[in-house]
Design a protein that fits this description.
- This protein has 552 residues and is α/β, with parallel strands linked by helices.
- The chain has three domains: 260 residues, Nitrilase/N-carbamoyl-D-aminoacid amidohydrolase (4-Layer Sandwich), CATH 3.60.110.10; 209 residues, Rossmann fold; 42 residues.
- The chain is 38% helix and 19% strand.
- The protein has a seven-stranded mixed beta sheet with strand order 5-4-3-2-1-14-15, covered by helices on one side. The chain has a six-stranded mixed beta sheet with strand order 6-7-8-9-12-13, covered by helices on one side. A five-stranded parallel beta sheet has the order 18-17-16-19-20, sandwiched between helices.
- Bound molecules: nicotinic acid adenine dinucleotide (DND), adenosine-5'-triphosphate and glutamine (GLN).
- The site of adenosine-5'-triphosphate has 20 residues, from strand 16, helix 6 and strand 17.
Length: 552
C-alpha cells in the first residue's frame, strides 16, 4: 500500500486570497493527476505569512473564509484528495471590534471541510508576534487518508515535544507539519535536527511542508523534507524555488517508509546568496516595481548589491548611476564602469560637483569661519540620494540602498543620503561577510548572469566613503573583523559588555562600538526595510528604545 503525499511548496502573496486560492487549486489538480491523495499547503497559505495586523480586521478574516470555501468547491471533483489548508479562523464568540482567531488548518475533502485544527504553540519571539492575533488550540488532530492515520501539526507546535506526543497518543502513524519558518544562516540544519527530535520521541515518520518566498524582511526557503521513523532523511525539496514536492509513503504492516527525491545541501554562502536574491525579487516583484536602480560608487557594497539585483531581476531591469564628486578617485570611476559592462546593465554618470558647490555657496554665510567636517560629507551623500530618488519618481524603479550591517550598527551612513531608498538589500550582512560573499559570487554563477562580475580591485582596495580627501573607513571605525565580532556578540547574542571584554576584545573597542550601536537607534528607525539573514537583524526582532540611558 502506498500513499502519495504532495507538499505545495509555493510562493504566496500576503493579502492576495483569490490569487493564493487559485494557486492552491492548480496545485491540487496537478498533484491529483500525479497520483497524490494528500496535499499539504504551508502554514496560513490562504493569506500568506505574515499578515500581521491584517488579522485584526474582520473583513480580512471574512475574505480568508471565502477563499477557503472557494478551494473546497473547486477541488470537490478531485475525489478522495485530502487537502490540508492553512488559514486564520475567527473564534465563534468573537467580539466584532477585535478579531480573535486561531492559526488554523482545515482538512478539505470532496468539497467539504471535514475538520479544523488550531495551532497549539504560538511563537512570540524574534520576528513572530502570534499571540497578538491568535488564541492557542488545545486538541490534537488526526485524520485518515488511504489507510494512513495522519497527525497534523502547525510549525511551532513541532518545536515542542508535547503536541507531537499527544498527536501520537491520539493514534497518528505519521506526522504532517505545515510551516512558515523564516530563513537565517544555518536554520535549515536546525530545522531538520528539531524535527528529528520529534521523530525520535514519537517513533513516527514526519513530513515537513514549507513555504517559499520573500515577505518584506523575511525570506522562506522552501526545502520541504520528509524523515523516516529512524530519523533518516527520506526526501528533500529544493531550496528557494517553487515546487510540488512528492513523497511516497509505503505502509505495509506496521512499518511506514517514505521515499522521495533528495535535493543536495548547499554551502552557507550559496544559501545566503539565494536568500538575498529571492528577497529582492519578491520585494520588487510583489510590490509592482518595474525595476531597480542604485548608486554605483566603485566600492564593494554597491558592487555586491548590483550583482544581487541582476541575479534577482535580470540586467534589463537594473540601472546604475555613478555620481562623482571632487573626492572620487579615478579607479572608482573605472571600476564602476567596468562592473556595469560586465553585467550588461545601464550605466550613467551624473557629476554632483555643481550641486555640491551650489549648496556650499548657499550656506557660505552661515558657515563662514567654520572648518569643513561631516556636514559637507553628508551634503554629498544627500545630493546623491536626491538624484536617485528623482530618477525613481520619474521612472518608477525602486532605489536599492547599499548599507551593510556594520554600518547600520554604528550609524556609518547618512540620513536622507545613502540611507535614502526603498529596500536595504544587505542591511543584515556584516562587512566581513560582504567581502566573503563578493569572492564567492565571483567564483560562482548560480543564476547564469556571468561569472566574475565584480572587478578584483573593488574587493581588494581599502573601503572608503570618498567624502573627503584620502578618507578610509578604518580611520573612523575599528577593523571590520573586530567591529563585526563585537556586533555579533552584543547585538545578535545579547552578550554583556564585560563578558565581551573578558573574552579578549579591547575595552576601548567594545565601549566604542556598543556606544555607537546605542546612539544610532534613531537612524535605524528611519532606515528602509531589508532582508533578514541572521538570527537577529535590525528589523522586527530588534526593538530598542531611542531615548535610553542603559548600556551594559
Ligand atoms: N537621537 C536622535 N534622534 C533624532 N535625530 C537625531 C538624533 N541624534 C542625531 N540626530 C540627527 O541626525 C543628524 C546626524 O546624522 P547624519 O546627518 O546622518 O550625520 P552623521 O551621523 O553625523 O554623519 C554621517 C557619518 O556617516 C559616515 N558615512 C556617510 C555616508 C556614507 C558612509 C559610508 O561609507 O557608507 C559613511 C560619514 O563619514 C559620517 O561619519 C544630527 O545632525 C541630527 O539632526
Ligand atoms: N561616486 C558615487 N557614485 C554613485 N553612488 C555613490 C558614489 N559614492 C557613494 N555612492 C552611493 O552611496 C553609497 C555609500 O557609499 P560610500 O562610498 O559612502 O561607502 P560604502 O558604504 O563603502 O559603499 P561602497 O562600498 O559601495 O562604496 C554607495 O554604496 C553608493 O550607492
Ligand atoms: N511560524 C512558526 O510557528 C515558526 C516558528 C518556528 N520556531 C520556526 O521559526 O521555524
Amino acid at each position: 500500500m502506498t500513499l502519495s503525499i504532495c507538499t505545495a511548496q509555493l510562493n504566496f502573496v500576503v493579502g492576495d486570497m483569490p490569487g493564493n486560492a487559485q494557486k492552491i487549486i492548480a496545485a491540487a489538480r496537478e498533484a491529483y493527476a500525479q497520483g497524490a491523495r494528500l496535499l499539504l499547503t504551508p502554514e496560513l497559505a490562504i493569506c500568506g505569512y505574515a499578515a500581521e495586523d491584517l488579522f485584526l480586521r474582520p473583513a480580512f478574516i471574512a475574505a480568508c473564509d471565502d477563499a477557503v470555501k472557494t478551494v473546497a468547491r473547486e477541488t470537490a471533483g478531485l475525489k478522495g484528495l485530502a487537502i490540508v489548508l492553512g488559514h486564520p479562523q475567527a473564534l465563534a464568540h468573537d467580539a466584532p471590534a477585535f478579531s480573535a482567531c486561531h492559526n488554523a488548518a482545515s482538512l478539505l475533502r470532496d468539497g467539504h471541510i471535514e475538520q479544523t485544527y488550531a495551532k497549539r504553540e504560538l511563537p512570540n519571539y524574534q520576528v513572530f508576534d502570534e499571540r497578538r492575533y491568535f488564541v492557542a488550540g488545545t486538541e490534537p488532530c488526526v485524520f485518515e487518508v488511504e489507510g494512513v492515520r495522519v497527525g497534523l501539526l502547525v510549525c511551532e507546535d513541532a518545536w515542542f515535544a508535547e503536541p507531537a506526543r499527544s498527536t501520537a497518543a491520539a493514534g497518528a502513524q505519521l506526522l504532517a507539519v505545515i510551516n512558515a519558518s523564516p530563513f537565517h544562516l544555518g536554520k535549515s540544519a536546525e530545522r531538520e535536527a528539531t524535527m528529528r527530535a520529534r521523530v525520535a520521541e514519537t517513533g513516527l515518520p514526519l513530513v515537513y511542508a514549507h513555504l517559499v518566498g520573500g515577505q518584506d524582511e523575511v525570506v522562506f526557503e522552501g526545502r520541504s523534507f520528509a524523515l523516516n521513523a529512524d530519523g533518516s532523511v527520506a526526501g528533500r525539496g529544493p531550496g528557494f524555488e517553487e515546487k510540488l514536492v512528492f513523497a511516497r509513503v509505503h505502509h505495509a504492516q506496521a512499518a511506514i517508509k517514505i521515499e522521495a527525491d533528495i535535493a543536495p545541501e548547499k554551502s552557507l554562502e550559496a544559501d545566503l546568496w539565494d536568500a538575498l536574491v529571492l528577497g529582492v525579487r519578491d520585494y520588487v516583484g510583489k510590490n509592482g516595481f518595474p525595476g531597480a536602480l542604485l548608486g554605483l560608487s566603485g566600492g564593494i557594497d554597491s558592487a555586491l548589491v548590483l550583482a544581487i539585483a541582476v541575479d534577482a531581476l535580470g540586467a534589463d531591469k537594473v540601472r546604475t548611476v555613478m555620481m562623482p564628486s571632487p573626492y572620487t578617485a579615478d579607479i572608482s570611476w573605472i571600476d564602476a564602469r567596468d562592473m556595469a559592462e560586465r553585467l550588461g546593465v545601464r550605466y550613467d554618470e551624473i557629476s554632483i560637483k555643481p550641486q555640491f558647490e551650489a549648496f556650499k555657496a548657499a550656506l557660505a554665510g552661515d558657515f563662514a569661519g567654520l572648518p569643513e567636517d561631516t556636514t559637507e560629507e553628508n551634503l554629498q551623500a544627500r545630493i546623491r540620494g536626491t538624484l536617485l530618488m528623482a530618477l525613481s519618481n520619474k521612472f518608477g524603479a525602486i532605489v536599492l540602498t547599499t548599507g551593510n550591517k556594520s554600518e547600520m550598527s554604528t550609524g556609518y551612513c547618512t540620513l536622507y543620503g545613502d540611507m535614502a531608498g526603498g529596500f536595504a538589500v544587505i542591511k543584515d550582512v556584516a562587512k566581513t561577510r560582504v567581502f566573503d560573499l563578493a569572492r564567492w559570487r565571483n567564483a560562482n554563477d548560480p543564476y547564469g548572469t556571468g561569472a566574475n562580475p565584480i572587478p578584483e580591485r573593488i574587493i581588494t582596495r581599502p573601503p572608503s566613503a570618498e567624502l573627503r580627501p584620502d578618507q578610509k573607513d578604518q580611520d573612523s571605525l575599528p577593523p571590520y573583523e573586530v567591529l563585526d565580532a563585537i556586533v555579533a556578540r552584543y547585538m545578535e547574542n545579547d552578550e554583556p559588555i564585560e563578558s565581551i571584554i573578558a573574552s579578549g576584545f579591547a575595552r576601548a573597542d567594545v565601549e566604542r562600538v556598543t556606544r555607537l550601536i546605542k546612539l544610532n537607534e534613531y537612524k535605524r528607525r528611519q532606515a528602509p526595510v531589508g532582508i533578514r539573514v541572521t538570527r537577529r537583524s535590525f528589523g522586527k526582532d530588534w526593538r530598542y528604545p531611542i531615548t535610553n540611558k542603559f548600556r551594559a
